[in-house]
Specification:
single chain, three-stranded antiparallel sheet, mainly alpha, about 90 residues
């Protein structure tokens, strides 16, 4: 089941809280790849919690979320070229 979106499509609503939605223009294969990287970094945050490595893991989460358009400059404020450059940027997993 997909989460509820706001009328403008910019946010998803989960348990009554708004979160920025993933950029809808990201090609499906790239979106899946970035989501896989994001989940790997999230698992790494859990693994490294309380260690010196935790900051690196959290930076990985941030990079993946920026590439997905969920953080950083809102995707609806970017040009098509800026959006494409964002999701095509190299984002590697742990």
């Amino acid at each position: 089941m997909s989460p509820e979106h706001t009328d403008d499509g910019r946010y998803v609503v989960i348990d009554g809280r708004r979160w920025r939605a993933t950029d809808p223009d990201i090609p499906d294969d790239r979106r899946a790849e970035l989501q896989k990287v994001l989940m790997a970094w999230r698992r790494d945050v859990k693994r490294t919690r309380g260690t010196d490595e935790e900051a690196r893991s959290r930076a990985g989460v941030q990079a993946a979320k920026v590439a997905l358009g969920e953080r950083g400059t809102p995707w609806w404020e970017q040009s098509a070229d800026e959006r494409r450059a964002r999701w095509e940027a190299v984002v590697e997993g742990p």
